[in-house]
Amino acid sequence: MQESFTSQQWLVNTRARGDVEAMLSLVPYARRIGVSAEVDERGLVFRLAPRQGNVGNVMLPALHGGVVAAFMETAATLDLMLAARVARLPKIIDFSIDYLRTAHLAPTLARCLLLREGRRMANVQVSAWQEDETSPIATARLHLLLSDPPDMAIESIAHA
After folding, report:
1. Which partner from 4, 25, 72, 137 sits 20 to 30 angstroms from 10, CA to CA?
2. With contact defined as beta carbons under 8 Å apart, do 84 and 25 qualify?
3. Is 81 helix (H, G, I), strand (E, B) or coil?
4. Which key words tag this protein in UniProt (predicted)?
5. pTM of the model
6. pLDDT at 8
7. Helix 8-17 crosses helix 150-158 at what angle (to 10 degrees)?
8. 67, exposed or middle or buried, with CB in 10 Å at 0-12, 13-18, 19+?
C-alpha cells in the first residue's frame, strides 16, 4: 500500500514515531521549496533552505512572500498533526500573516505554538526568523478544521 495522509494507520504510526520527515516527503511543494524539520531543546523547528528558486526580489535578494507563507502554513499544519491529541487531518479555514522584516536568501526557521485544540477546530501561531528568534521576519495565525482521515471516517460509519 502506498503511503498517504488518507490512511489512518499510516498517520497513527507516523505520529507515534514523531516522523515529520515522512509527512514532509508526501508534500511535493514542501520538498520543492526546501522545507525540513528538526528537534531542538524547545521542540520542533522547521527549516526553509535558501534556494535561488525561492527568490522573489532578485535586487535584494529576498525570498518571495508566497514562499514564506507556504513554509509557515506547512509548518503549522504538520506541527498540529503531530501535537494534536488524536490523529486528525487539519484543513485550513483561515490564514493570516504579518510580514515584519525582509526575508533574505538565508536559512529561515519557524516554530509553532498550538494555542487551542477543540473537538473540531484548532488555532496555531507560527513565528519565522532567520538570524535571531526574537526578531521574526513574519508571524502567522491559522484556524484549522480537524477531520478524520477518509478511511477512518468510512470505518466509523461502518461501525455505526
Report:
1. 72
2. no
3. helix
4. Hydrolase
5. 0.89
6. 80
7. 120
8. buried
